[in-house]
């Protein structure tokens, strides 16, 4: 069949979507095994595979857009809509987690002693590391907004500064989250409370790591002058995703740490 002209880029075959999907699955298994008290080696290897797959996939996309010029206006608009729909799907995912939080906490059954958190499970104080992490993520959102506006004004130096600050704050957040996991007095097996806590904060942590990867790639591209005042879709996508992660954490802080605590 003869193909007509169209404004879209017909992508070539790529193994990275499959590798990324498998890596995400094995990472979930590795995290579960680690939280059950076993070694974290499998989780770390899966995380490494995930990061490599993501890097290779984004490398190909950057080559097609920046160096080969395959991303027409229609392609850019399609990618923008795809990012928005992806974030919307993530909203639905976290909505299901928050629904579970309030359903169980407001209707504890007899297996939980008709109380939540159940007797014997000591919840974490929301005024410790959780509150500090909240301030850190809010600050990272401010610094990222500063970087975004600086880029739109053509101030590359200030944009780089804002990105570096944002990434450093994200790394500090993840470090404190890991410390909190090690110092937590309960595990994922300690009733529904432990399961909800680790699943919700764990999935958020995975999204933070993904956001850090996206921000790091955007910083690298910013240094290499891949963005301009009018063309910055990759930067905007990482910024939108990071702000989404910030908002999710605010709901986690309110529901998991304050409400359930």
Automatic annotation (TrEMBL):
One of its GO terms (biological process) is mitochondrial electron transport, cytochrome c to oxygen. Coiled coil: none annotated. GO terms for molecular function: cytochrome-c oxidase activity. The gene is COX3. Component of the cytochrome c oxidase, the last enzyme in the mitochondrial electron transport chain which drives oxidative phosphorylation. The respiratory chain contains 3 multisubunit complexes succinate dehydrogenase (complex II, CII), ubiquinol-cytochrome c oxidoreductase (cytochrome b-c1 complex, complex III, CIII) and cytochrome c oxidase (complex IV, CIV), that cooperate to transfer electrons derived from NADH and succinate to molecular oxygen, creating an electrochemical gradient over the inner membrane that drives transmembrane transport and the ATP synthase. One of its GO terms (cellular component) is mitochondrion. Keywords: Membrane, Mitochondrion, Translocase, Transmembrane, Transmembrane helix. The lineage of its organism: Eukaryota, Metazoa, Ecdysozoa, Arthropoda, Hexapoda. The chain crosses the membrane at residues 16-35, 41-58, 79-104, 124-147, 159-176, 196-219, 240-260. The keyword Signal does not apply. This is Cytochrome c oxidase subunit 3. It is found in: Membrane. InterPro entries: Cyt_c/ubiquinol_Oxase_su3 (IPR024791), Cyt_c_oxase_su3_dom (IPR033945), Cyt_c_oxidase-like_su3 (IPR000298), Cyt_c_oxidase_su3-like_sf (IPR035973), Cyt_c_oxidase_su3_a-hlx (IPR013833). Belongs to the cytochrome c oxidase subunit 3 family. It comes from the Eukaryota. Its main location: membrane. It holds the Pfam family COX3. Residues 4-261 form the Heme-copper oxidase subunit III family profile domain. It is a multi-pass membrane protein.
